[in-house]
Specification:
62 residues
Length: 62
Amino acid sequence: MIKKIFVIIKKIIMSALFIYAYNVIATPLNTIVPINLITILIVCVLGIPGLFGLIIFSLVVF
């Protein structure tokens, strides 16, 4: 039980770090993905393809 909780916490932290790393790299291009609960959960559940989906969504909408 505790092991599963640590795995979930690890995924959440890694998701936030992936979004942060992308934002650091993409700042000169003016395409950022906000770090909030919904975006972290999307990246946590879907992984890197979820991050790419958020990037494409931010490019299309904004």
